[in-house]
Amino acid sequence: MSTPEQTPTVRAGIDPRSPRFGAGITAVLLLVDVFLGLVGATTAAFWLLLVIALLFAWGAFAGIRRHPYGALFRTVVRPRLAPPAELEDPAPPTFAQGVGLVVTGLGLLLHLLGVPAVLPIAAALAFVAAFLNSAFGYCLGCQIYLLLVRAGVIRRGGVAAA
Asked: Is the pLDDT score of 8 beyond 50?
């Protein structure tokens, strides 16, 4: 049994609508990227996927609270909404940003290594995850995080969730 000194501090939660808002923006950008890749605008698709990957990196390393979409939500959208019914732990959505970074980063890397058609495939995979989060509130990266915590691979709050 842990003593109060050993108990990890609980971080303040985030509005669960904020990651869904960001996922909606990301889904639109990824859908555009898929389209660009499919019509042969590979250079534009590459640069857009690079920007999306950098945004995922921002969320993964700086934390979901410091992400530009989170700031946009807090300043523009949140003041127009009723308070959330409950708050959410920021660690799973932050981990999900890392998953998005891995998927888009691998797509970019494989493209640079000459693998054909990898850009729209990577963008499509990331789009599915972003769409599920935005439209249905189902975060695939968050589910992976919870499975890894349950399996003991990572500990809760083990990612940069600040």
From this structure: no
Residue 75 or residue 161, greater confidence? 75
**What are 84-114's pLDDT values in tens digits?**
999 999 999 999 999 999 999 999 999 999 9
Which residue has 């990227």 as its token pair? Answer: 33
Task: Please give the model's pTM, rounded to 2 decimal places.
Answer: 0.85
